[in-house]
Known about the structure:
- By secondary structure, this protein is an all-alpha fold.
- Helix content is 57%, strand content 0%.
Amino acid sequence: MQTLDSVPPAPLLTARQEQILLLIGEGLTNREIGDRLGVAEKTIKNCVTGLLACLNMQRRSQAAAYAAVRAIRSDQRLPRTR
């Protein structure tokens, strides 16, 4: 089991990847993220695929958990949108 201290730091992500990671952490779907950012759902799907590859993850849920850990580490709260 990993602790907060054992989670590796994030690789360098683009500003867009950072935005998408935060929105995934909020629990938004690709469609909701696309609507929020003003781009097509397919564009977000492609961005999420690239983001998961950068993070060396296979599942969106892993990225959501990672976003939550990062928020805790930086003493930030993920904003609630629902």
